[in-house]
Design goal:
Layout (H helix, E strand, L loop, with lengths): L20 H22 L4 H4 L2 H10 L6 E4 L6 H6 L37 H14 L6 E6 L6 H13 L4 E6 L10 H8 L4 H15 L5 H19 L4 H4 L3 E7 L3 H12 L5 E6 L7 H5 L25 H15 L3 E5 L9 H6 L4 E3 L4 H13 L3 E7 H4 L3 H9 L5 E6 L16 H5 L5 E5 L3 H13 L3 E5 L22 E3 L11 H5 L5 E6 L3 H13 L4 E6 L1 E3 L3 H8 L4 E9 L4 H11 L5 E6 L9 H8 L3 H12 L1
Amino acid sequence: MRSIILLSKIHSPQDIKKLSQKELKQLAQEIRTTIINVVGKNGGHLASNLGVVELTIALHRVFNSPDDAIVWDVSHQCYTHKLLTGRYEEFPTLRKAGGLSGFTNKNESVHDFFINGHSSTSISSALGLLTARELNGNKGKVIAVIGDGALTGGMAFEGLSHAGQLCKNLIVVLNDNQMSIDHNTGSVSRYLSRLTMTAGYQTFRYRVDKAIDKIPYLGRPLEKFIFRFKRSLKGLFLTNNLFVDLGFEYVGPLDGHNEAALERELRRVSRLHRPVVVHVVTKKGKGYSPAENNPELFHGIGPFQISDGTVEKFDTQSFTEAFSNLMCEEGEKNTDIVAITAAMAKGTGLSAFSHRFPERFFDVGIAEEHAVTFAGGLAKGGKVPVVCIYSTFIQRAVDQMIHDIALQKAHSVFILDRAGAVPADGVTHQGIYDIALFRPIPELEIMTVCSAADLKLCFEWAVEKGTSVVIRYPKLTCPTEVPQMSEPVELGRGIFIPCTEFVIENISEAELEAKKNKILIVATGGIYSEVQKAVRSVLLDGGYADVYLLRFIKPFDETYFIELASRYNGVVFVEDGVITGGIGEYLAGLLAEKGMKNNKVLGFEDKFFSHGSREEVLEMAGLSPSHIKKAVKECCN
């Protein structure tokens, strides 16, 4: 392993301004070594971070953060930025509870301007920040760094359009690695792949700009005239430059791994007084062959063997893997099923379906709003669209879910992966809002599954009998099955699991039946693993608790549930979503109206939850097995 000499001495971006080109090359090597070592142990976003090392060095050499603001889109590629802004000593805590975030975090450093983790926001955020600074008389530069994948999001184009209209001196650095999370798709990707400008033109342009700047009084008016004149000429001779058409000056494409050349061009760009796009071409995974050869795998990865990049395999099956197999099985049986993803084919388990049925697979890029409305159109045409999106990203398409799906009664299935507590990625990625967001929407059915068998039954039901259906499950290994999980789906009803299914040695069924204080735990499927552990602990301590798993959050058979709950001394609601607006809060109120007030509601409170392991996040939220057990005991008193 290479020794870390230069990087350990970098305490702020000012420190790298003193280094020679030879030292900068050594620094880049040390940065890559550090990132590989830490991500190998902690997991994280590897390929994207290895691809922007030289670009990040050049940005911090040319600009003066935080007086100049660098805004990272998604910010999953900010590890080098963190290392250059005084966080080297803390870097081993990356993505650990209480440690550094895997994304930019304004509470972590003055060099991070936003808490970011979602795509296509940087241009709008940067433009707003720049406008505010100008109104306050601040002359600092603002730079938005956005990947070609994030540029497929509609919001990025809204920001570009407004920036061109305002004609602010915004700098947009387009990091073009010709691959976002999965391989880029769509006309924007193809456009970027063929977009070129000659080096001769760039040199001539800067010489002219420099000469004009020196003309007293006439410099700025003449500069504006020539800018408009150049735009007219480009309209004639460079008809396919989208950025020029939107009002930007365009520079590139530049070699994203040539730090000296990048620095030279960025210094020239920094002197411009109008919006500019700097097109930089980089290679994902640069400097680590396993990530270079398989950037998709190393986009977001768990701990791995640094020597060869291998990831430990487990015999257990995750919900995502169970869905992947199920999707192929159902696709074989029903030729009307089509699959849609927003740049997350691998992450949502659709890769196998895409290879097996390529004509029925659609990756729309990072465009969740379009994905949802596109599904509505497919449903109108007689297909059964299955839209697979992470819970945290479906937030971006709430209006489309209301207007283009539920209102139309479109027969479609929405698979929300990563629902509930999401480890390591932190506040921007917790999948805890979908129940509260979608439960109020008419004509929308919401299901929550607890095992592979349950997922199969619910998915088959959604495809055959449902209308507009949402199925949510966590980023987790499928729990151990019990016979009740294979019971047929009944509209509005869940799965009742008596505590006898959790009986451990030395406790007889007769002893359990004799218990006076009997508690019912009502839970969403994604929290079943923790409920299972809690019930066993309750039984060991001499208590009693049956479990009712909510297959349906909506519609809900209230009559059946009230009758069931009336048999118990108390009810504990456990939900892997926010309490406010959640199903637990609603059902507890329903029981209270019927005079059954001995209830406890556990869920995510009204605050944001940071990164950590699943167990640590649930501990923070009061949803660990010990918290559930405590709530059961309190209901017994």
